[in-house]
Amino acid sequence: MTTVRDLLMTKISSIYYTNPFTTVRDALKMMAEKKVGALVVIQDGDIAGIFSERDFARKSITIPGFTMNAPIRSLMSSPVFYVLPDQSVEECMSLMTEKRIRHLPVMEENVLIGVISIGDVVRHLMVEKNAFIKNLESYIGKNAHLRPD
Amino acid sequence: MAIVNDILKLKGSQVWVISSSSFVQTALELMAEKNVGALVVADADQIVGIFSERDYARIAIELPNFTLATPIRELMSTPVFFVTPDQTIEECLAIMTEKRFRHLPVLEGNKMVGLISIGDLVKHVLSKMDNTIKDLEEYIWIHMI
């Protein structure tokens, strides 16, 4: 079973993060520049939250007098759902589906070692399932003589 | 091979539409209420754009005077790429990957009959793969072991 650690090793991954006092404008600029949908929010070495496109869409309308100068602290999602490197990719998929989130930080001994997105998980599952189907088909092809009929 | 219509049969043809003069605030409230990531923008029954969470995140920072009272027409994506109910899921995924969209309106003639998201497509493809695996395994158990 493929683990989060395996998945992290297959992608050239940078972790994009910022602090809670970053303005929404600066956070969104960084997301656009890095072509990512979310940033991890770190304060004093700990994960304080995650700020995603969805957080921006859902929460900017709930803040009276919202401007792009608002700190992301007031829009980020917290507490953060995260995974450990030894968890399976399937577990990530379940967690993302259940919580309706697209990004999961990966923590190892309280250190952030990566972020996996729903795109990473889906791509992996498709490749894995496809390979499994190919294997089963090839087994059936090679062992056709075992068929009793 | 699965087609767009198979997905619409499961998810229905409900599409949330807003006019291009609506405020961003109104559009985002509708998206939150309906729990969707994108709206179709239409004026007088004519589709003029799509407004998604991604458009909001990417385009709002480009507008010097952005407020929540900015009209949607300044933030929507245009032109709109659409598919027909008989197109395959693979074709839809190819368009979405190439154009980096998460949503595609479905048009039949001039009538909009649904909006499909990349999530809908992926869920469908993965569950079809699971079914294939189950069928193959069952075949092996019955005939070969």
- Shape of chain A from CA axes? elongated
Main β-sheet of chain A: number of strands, strand sense, barrel status?
Answer: 3 strands, mixed
Structural class by helix and strand composition of chain A: alpha+beta
Strand count, sense and barrel status of the largest sheet of chain B are: 3 strands, mixed
**What does the average pLDDT of chain A come to?**
93
User: Can you give the helix content of chain B as a percent range?
Assistant: 40-55%
Return the average pLDDT of chain B rounded to an integer.
Answer: 94
Whole-Å distance between the termini of chain A?
35 Å
Structure description:
The complex is a heterodimer of chains A (149) and B (145). Chain A has helices at 4-10, 24-34, 53-59, 89-99, 118-142, and strands at 17-18, 38-43, 46-52, 103-108, 111-117. With 149 residues, chain A is an alpha+beta fold. In chain A, strand 4 (103-108) and strand 5 form a beta hairpin. In chain A, helix 4 (89-99) packs across helix 5 (118-142). Chain A is elongated. With 145 residues, chain B is α+β, with helices and mostly antiparallel strands. Chain B is built from 5 helices and 5 strands; from the N terminus they run αβαββααββα. Chain B has helices at 4-11, 24-34, 53-59, 89-99, 118-144, and strands at 17-18, 38-43, 46-52, 103-108, 111-117. In chain B, the strands form 2 sheets. Chain B has a 3-stranded mixed beta sheet. The mean pLDDT of chain B is 94.
